[in-house]
User: Fold this.
Amino acid sequence: MANEEVNKFGETAGFIHNYIKEDLKGELNKIHTRFPPEPNGYLHIGHAKSICLNFGLAKLYGGKCNLRFDDTNPAKEDIEFVNSIQEDIKWLGFDWEDRIYYASSYFHKMYEYAVKLIKKGKAFVCDMTAAEMKEARGDLVTPGKESPWRNRTEEENLDLFERMKNGEFPDGAKTLRAKIDMASPNMNMRDPVIYRISHMSHHASGDEWCIYPMYDFAHPVEDAIEGITHSICTLEFEDHRPLYDWVIREIGEFSVIPRQIEFAKLNLTDTIMGKRYLRNLVETGQVDGWDDPRLCTVCGIRRRGYTPSSIRTFCETIGVAKSNSVVDIQQLEYCIREDLKGDTPVVMAVLDPVKVIITNYPEGRSEMLSVTNHPDNEALGERQIPFGREIYIEREDFMEDPPKKYFRLSPDKEVRLKGAYFIKCTGVKKDARGNILEIYATYDPETKGGNCTTRKVKGTIHWVYAPTAEDLDVNLYENLVIRDETSENGYRLNPDSLKTVTAKAEPCLKDAKPMDRFQFMRLGYFIADSKHSKPGKPVFNRIVSLKSSFKP
Assistant:
């Protein structure tokens, strides 16, 4: 296999490739991976990295990847999340074919395996409360203390466990714990809980069960049942690997023994990815739902205007590492710019308009000008735009007292209107506070199309014809959070994360459909919002600005 293929997910993923290639030298013929989300929230871009890795590795080595929902905690899970996760994976471009599984489908089998562990003397029913177990667990230098109920007889444990299943005890009254080693240096091996009582209805199994397996027990069982060869997990599960292996070994009924491999999760600067925090933002109404374009959820960045290919490219370029690090969010923004720059139509819109009156242009007259839809893509063709005596330009494109090397419009200075004419400022009109209300200028009719053989101007600005300009709402986004060392989490919500302005835009933008993308000349890439746009009245979201300090 070519090195460039193996390194598709970054050279830092070499340790995973090495494990897989080592295993393929033995009896293993093909690899089988899985993406196992818990349906307790919407996916975020960190999950996108895991999706790209698990599905990508399977494709790279001619194997398969399952989609499996680890739905073992009915208190936090919902069918809404199940459906959204499937939609997000498909949008990213991956297909689990007919291999969609649920932990809840294995509840009967997991119960049988728990009974088997009891019969082997490897599990017991414990009456300790959560607080008592925490106190008895010990710490990294102090061994834990064994439960008073650790040595119950097999018969007593089987009877109590069945009665737990039958709903005879309230939540928290009893647990089933693995019997391993309370003196283990690995805290996860100190007789961990593998079943707890929860009298809650499950989104898939209804009220059939009132006991549910813990993730550390369910996860290895699910992998082994499905024949997963490589269980690719994030780094926090590294200390859980001995328990993962212990469960599979003690059950001892599986023909395929999965290998758990850990990698560093994705961390982005100035971004929140904790499900609990995201859920709180949604449920308290601080954001516009799970798909708020300021969130790093997959549905949020989709609504923001990111493309599936830009996310896949980002996940490939950042690579897969064994140690935690933080990726600059500008790297993600670079990927979407690169993806959009070649085939996104370029139009003109003015976000902070000020009127310019071209005094020597005939009153009551207008004309149509031909402009290209993309300077580097002839296939996108041309369009006709109106031009006349009154236009709008960006307020920042005019200065009365400009500094040196200011090449936009200023008194007695000339500037090019993109695709139109050269104009020269002759004066301004101000209000009582000194704010500019109108700019007056003259145009040179010999410079039609913005071309002139007798002289050159350095500045080119965008504009729109005032009488036909469309008023469109445009959402401008900044990072949702900003760093704040004085806060508990090291960051706080950015009060300026969303600014909505009314732009003056070309008439063609009125017909934009939801999810249509455009480059607003000199301003950035924008998309018609999928949630709030209406026929003839689209709302635009800024995907990303045109410039960045990031260097690839």
